[in-house]
Amino acid sequence: MASKGNIDWCDGEKNEICQKIETLPKNVHVGLPDPLTDPVKCSLVKGDYLYFHYDCDGHDDRGWGCGYRTMQTMASWVYFNRSPVKNHNRIAPSLLQIQQALVTMEDKPGSFSGSREWVGAFEASLVLDYFCDVPCKVVHVRGGGAELEQVAVEELHQHFEKHGSPVMMGGDRDNSSKGILGVCTGDKGSYLLVADPHYYGRQQEKTELQRRGWVSWKRISSLDQSSFYNLCMPQTATKAI
């Protein structure tokens, strides 16, 4: 399996003229050991995707673009694993295209386009439906701790087994977007496989991203126990490859 994929990037600011950008790492979780030696249950993403992160297209979005980057990772999964898709020549919409789509759908005011405003799980559900014809299930988890273990973990197991696509996770106090690529449960708790979109810098191989913790297993108990969380789960309707 190739470690990288080429992108024909369509820039909405230039009338959708496509331009080549740097290749992005593909399937960055592959090769990462399970967090538990004897897990009760592990469920992982199925199929190919690209890892999008801060500034990966030359647009410096540090401090506000993490939700957009997670959306792009999810959209890339749809591109590789669903056929046909609405815009089959576009692996993922650009930041500006995402903002313009939310304005078009009247979810955001006109001033949102070109801004540095954040987006969350609900906006992701609108954008994936708009660009990819994929509806999403948004799961609200009222608090950390027990409810994350009881509600989010089971929802994620079911999602990866049925749909196989990456999931977007974010909250209020913990407002950093996370791409969720898997869930692993043991007798003493569960772990999430997280693709962190906050990486900024030159493109790295997946082994280096894993070594530096940008793709890693994180204990559920390490998340903010006082934050609510939302999960955006693409309902792909067809069996993932």
UniProtKB/TrEMBL annotation:
Gene Ontology molecular function: any one: deUFMylase activity
Protein name (record): UFSP1/2/DUB catalytic domain-containing protein
Domain of life: Eukaryota
PANTHER family named among the record's database cross-references: INACTIVE UFM1-SPECIFIC PROTEASE 1, UFM1-SPECIFIC PROTEASE 2
Domain UFSP1/2/DUB catalytic: 41-232
Entry-linked InterPro entries: Papain-like_cys_pep_sf (IPR038765), UFSP1/2_DUB_cat (IPR012462)
Record's keyword annotation contains Ribonucleoprotein: no
Pfam family, one: Peptidase_C78
Record organism: Crenichthys baileyi (White River springfish)
Record lineage: Eukaryota, Metazoa, Chordata, Craniata, Vertebrata
Alphabetical UniProt keywords: Hydrolase
Family note: Belongs to the peptidase C78 family.
